[in-house]
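--- STAGE predict ---
source: upstream dedup step, 1 unique chain passed
mode: sequence only
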Amino acid sequence: MHSGIQIWQAWLDKQDKSIYPDLLFIADLILNSDAKLYCKMSYGAPFIYRYGPIGYFTVDKKLGIYFAFYWGKLLVPFDESGIFHHDDRKMVKLVMLKNRMSDEDFLGSFLQLLEKALVIDGEKYGK
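--- STAGE serialize ---
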């Protein structure tokens, strides 16, 4: 996944330096998982893929750092801890990341959603 990390780094170089720790942590967690995920730039943001899009990172200067689950609407029933940011998006659902990387409960919930997202990805795009 070395090339994925290089893509992350190029994107990070354009971001506010205060967000580095959280984004690098979550990028390492996702890209070095056993799920064989990869990263590529789309629409100016780093997207995470396995068979199809899993999600992408977005930085909102007012709201903070988010991971946007591509099939988030299908994940809402699995969000037992309520970590999704509530907005009016139809399919994509956001999870706020800033200052949450040291919260083990949050990380566990995030990883459970990521696991469910991989199942949905397999159902929609898998071979």
